[in-house]
Amino acid sequence: MNKEALFSIPLPTIRRFPAYLRLLKDFENAGESWVSATRLAEDLRLKPIQVRKDMSCTGVEGKPKVGFEVHELIMAIEHHLGWDNATDAILIGAGNLGNALVGYKGFANYGLRIVAILDNDKKKIGTTVYGVTVQSMEHLEETVVRLGVNIAVLTVPAEVAQEVAEMVVAAGIKGIWNFVPKNLTLPEDIIVQRTDLATSFAELSSRIKKSIEEKSRTKRSLQN
Amino acid sequence: MNKEALFSIPLPTIRRFPAYLRLLKDFENAGESWVSATRLAEDLRLKPIQVRKDMSCTGVEGKPKVGFEVHELIMAIEHHLGWDNATDAILIGAGNLGNALVGYKGFANYGLRIVAILDNDKKKIGTTVYGVTVQSMEHLEETVVRLGVNIAVLTVPAEVAQEVAEMVVAAGIKGIWNFVPKNLTLPEDIIVQRTDLATSFAELSSRIKKSIEEKSRTKRSLQN
DNA sequence: TAGATTGTTAATCGATTAACAATC
DNA sequence: TAGATTGTTAATCGATTAACAATC
To answer: Which domain holds residue B59?
Structure first.
C-alpha cells in the first residue's frame, strides 16, 4: 500500500479528481481495463508527472510499462471523495438555477441525490420538478429530520440567502452548497461550499484580456 | 503608482476579486466611501495581510489609518477584470441550465451580456427566454459575425459538446465558457474556461468527509 | 500625539516539476 | 531483452504569511 494516501490529499488534487473520474469511466465503458498516467495526462492536458503524483494520492499502485487498473482507480477516487455512498441533500429555491440543478443528471455520478425541494412561493409549492414535489418552507425542519439529510443546496435570491441559511442551520443541516453570490455568516462548524459563477468568469475575463493585450503587443512590435 | 500592478496578477488574487467587488459595492450602496483591508478581511474571512497584498495588485494606494477609497477600488478591480466594458456573448443550448444563466441577473455586474441564444431543438427555436429569442444553429456563423461576438457560453448535452464547440470555433469564437462536464479538444489559441459543478462538489464532499472523520476520532479518543 | 493601518521585504509553506533508480 | 512507465526524493516555483518601518 502506498503510504501517501494516509496523509490528507492536497486540495488541487481533490479538485482534479472529478475530471480523472469522468475520463476513467469513459475508458471503462470503452472496455479498456488499464491506462497509463501518460495517457491520462495527454487527454486532460496535464503533465504526466502531475498525474502520477495525483494517482499516488489514491493509494492505487501502478505497474511499470502498463499503468493503472481503470476500475481500481475509479473505486479509489470515488472512495476518497465519499462518492461511493449516495449522499442525500435538500434544495432550497425552485427558481431557474434550482430546477436546472435538480434536473442535472450528472449528479448521479457524484453520489448526490436531491430528495426534497423547498420554496416559499405559493405558486411553486405542490408543483413537481423532475419527479420531486416542491414543499413549503414550513416543512423544513420536519423534512431534514425525517430524511436525515445533512446537506442543503442553496439557490434562493441573494436578498434572503442569509436568512434562509440560518433557518437551514437551525433545522440541523451541517453542510451548505451555496450558489448564491453572497457570503454567508454562519457558525464555524457549518461547512459552506460556494460555487460562484463570478469567480469562473473572472478567470475567463482575465485570460481573454491578457490574450488581447499580447496580440496587440505582437502587432506593435511587428510594426517597428 | 504602485509598481506591482504592472506585473501579471496571480490567479488566486483574480479569483478573489469578484468577492471583493460584491462587498465593496455593498459598502458603496451603504454610503461608505472608505474601507480598511482589516474590515474587508473580516467580512470575507480572509487574513488582513492577504487582502493588503491583493489590494496592492489593483494599483490603488491606501491611506494609513483610513484604508482605501471604495469607489476607486471598485473601478480598479473592474478594470483589471475587463468588466468595465460590457462583453457580449452568445449562449448555445437553451436547456434548464442555459435558461438559468440567461436569466441570471448577476451577469450584469460582470459586464457579461448574452445577446443571442442558439439551439438545435425545433420546439425551442422561436421561443423567447428572458427577452432573447432562441435561434436555429444554422444562424451560428452569421450571428457571430453580425454581432461581433467573441465569447460563447456552452450549455449543451455532453454527447454533442465537442461537435458544437468545433462549430463555434469555426464560426470565429475566441473564448468558450464551458458548463458541460466534458473536456474539449480545441486549437491552442482558443481560451476554454470550464465551470464544473463536480469540482466544487468534490471539495464539499471531501470537507464533509474530513469533518466526519475528525468527529469520530474525537469521540474515540474521549472514550479512551 | 498615539496608535491603527498601509506597503514592502523576507521567511515560510505547499504544490509542481525535475531527475532518476526500480521494474515489468 | 529493451524501453516504457512507475514511484520517490530533491529542486523549483509561486503564493501566503510574518515582520516591521513608514505614515496619517
So the answer is: 4-81
Supply the pTM of this predicted model: 0.90
- Say how far B64 CA is from D21 C1', in Å: 13
Query: Into how many domains does chain B fold?
Result: 2
Q: Is residue B203 part of a domain?
A: no
Nearest chain A residue (CA) to B25: A182
Domain boundary among A62, A81, A100: A81
Whether residue B118 is found in the same domain as residue B182 = yes
DSSP assignment of A85-118 equals S-EEEEEE--SHHHHHHHH-GGGGGGTEEEEEEE
CB A22 within 8 A of CB B182: yes
CATH assignment of the domain containing A136: 3.40.50.720
Query: Which residues, 6+ apart, have CB-to-CB distance to A127 below 8 Å?
Result: A94, A133, A134
Answer yes or no: are the C-beta atoms of A180 and A158 closer than 8 Å.
yes
State which of B27, B51, B81 marks the end of a domain: B81
Question: By the CB < 8 Å criterion, does A106 face chain B?
Answer: yes
Of residues B19, B103, B205, nearest to A81 (C-beta) = B205
Task: Confirm whether B216 is domain-assigned.
Answer: no
Write the CATH number for A69: 1.10.10.10
Cross-chain CB nearest to A106 (options B82, B83, B198)? B198
In chain B, residues 115-144 whose CB comes closer than 8 Å to chain A:
none
pLDDT in tens, chain B (224 residues): 333 345 789 999 999 999 999 999 999 999 999 999 999 999 999 999 999 999 999 999 999 999 999 999 999 999 999 999 889 999 999 998 999 899 887 788 888 999 999 999 999 999 999 999 999 999 999 999 999 999 999 999 999 999 999 999 999 999 999 999 888 999 988 999 999 899 999 999 999 888 877 777 676 677 65
